[in-house]
Write a structure and sequence with these properties.
By secondary structure, the chain is α+β, with helices and mostly antiparallel strands. It is built from three helices and four strands. The protein is about 35% helix and about 35% strand. It has a four-stranded antiparallel sheet with strand order 1-4-3-2. Strand 3 and strand 4 form a beta hairpin. Helix 2 crosses helix 3. The longest helix is centred in the last third of the chain and has 30 residues. It starts with a helix and ends in a 9-residue tail after the last helix.
């Protein structure tokens, strides 16, 4: 009975499984590969210039959030993606707080063409980094003595597509949508 089960299992394995080719020699694989190597805070600045008076202000401050994405090639297969987020809270009395965060990630890209790498580096990689940067900013605001600030999610893919469309329109000599 055990011999019959072994035989049936081996028949199923040879008949039903898809086998993959053996990997090529070191570095000779040609399949595209992308991976996160590391994430880190490159620069963090928290300013609370009007403390302790700011804690007596009654008005709700206006929050301004600005962000920028950059990428640089570290080596043949490694890119650093920078997500820079600036948050400023201002009230009539002055600046309540200002936070600048430069949060980065190292991404390994192997056998990925430039036209495939660009959308990854400027849309997908920032999407992967953002939740961690968002938590750091929330903690920094709270540690400065204010209620934690939870930034809204950002659709980096839509922003990337919008920027590409604007660049294409400018190259075609058209005026970008939204500018007068």
């Amino acid at each position: 009975m055990a011999d019959e089960n072994d035989k049936n299992e081996s028949d199923a394995n040879t008949a039903g499984n898809v086998t993959t080719p053996d990997p090529l020699a070191n570095g000779a694989d040609t399949a595209p590969q992308i991976g996160v190597i590391s994430q880190y805070v490159k620069d963090l600045s928290v300013e609370n210039p009007n403390a302790p008076d700011v804690y007596q202000w009654n008005a709700q401050p206006q929050i301004d959030v600005q962000f920028n994405i950059g990428s640089s090639q570290v080596s043949d297969e490694v890119h650093e993606v920078e997500l820079k987020i600036d948050v400023t809270a201002k009230a009539d009395e002055g600046v309540a707080f200002a936070i600048e965060l430069l949060y980065c990630g190292l991404f390994g890209l192997r056998n990925v063409s430039e036209e495939q790498a660009h959308p990854f580096l400027f849309a997908e990689a920032p999407r992967l980094l953002f939740p961690f940067a968002r938590a750091i900013i929330s903690d920094a605001v709270r540690d400065a003595g204010f209620q934690a600030l939870l930034l809204e999610p950002i659709d980096f893919t839509a922003l990337y597509m919008q920027q590409r469309e604007q660049m294409a329109a400018q190259q075609a000599g058209e005026q970008p949508v939204g500018n007068a």
